Amino acid sequence: MRLDKFLKVSRLIKRRTVAKDVSDQGRVWINGRDAKASSAVKVGDEIAIQFGQKKVTVKVELLTESTRKEDAAKMFTVLKEEPYKNED
């Protein structure tokens, strides 16, 4: 599954276009590597997302093409949330 679609279906990011923009800005990493919107996501991958001053790391648990709001949280497990420190 594409990264932008996973972020939208899992409701980590509300809109696919926003997920694409965030990915293309270099604010998403899969298993420690920079990820683009078209990057493939597999079960077991760790995805880190920078939301402003916060960095959230999740583990992919389930891939489905569509999901109900109640079931979206089953698609991932939050591993850690931490303040984001810009390394520039």
From TrEMBL:
Database matches in SMART domains: S4
Record has Repressor as a keyword: no
GO molecular function: ribosomal large subunit binding; rRNA binding; tRNA binding
Keyword set, alphabetical order: Protein biosynthesis, RNA-binding, rRNA-binding, tRNA-binding
Entry-linked Gene3D superfamilies: RNA-binding S4 domain (3.10.290.10)
Ranges where the RNA-binding S4 domain occurs: 1-64
Gene Ontology biological process terms, A to Z: rescue of stalled ribosome
Family classification: Belongs to the RqcP family.
Subunit structure: Associates with stalled 50S ribosomal subunits. Binds to RqcH, 23S rRNA and the P-site tRNA. Does not require RqcH for association with 50S subunits.
Summary of the function given for this chain in its UniProt record: Key component of the ribosome quality control system (RQC), a ribosome-associated complex that mediates the extraction of incompletely synthesized nascent chains from stalled ribosomes and their subsequent degradation. RqcH recruits Ala-charged tRNA, and with RqcP directs the elongation of stalled nascent chains on 50S ribosomal subunits, leading to non-templated C-terminal alanine extensions (Ala tail). The Ala tail promotes nascent chain degradation. RqcP is associated with the translocation-like movement of the peptidyl-tRNA from the A-site into the P-site.
Name of the protein described by the UniProt record: RQC P-site tRNA stabilizing factor
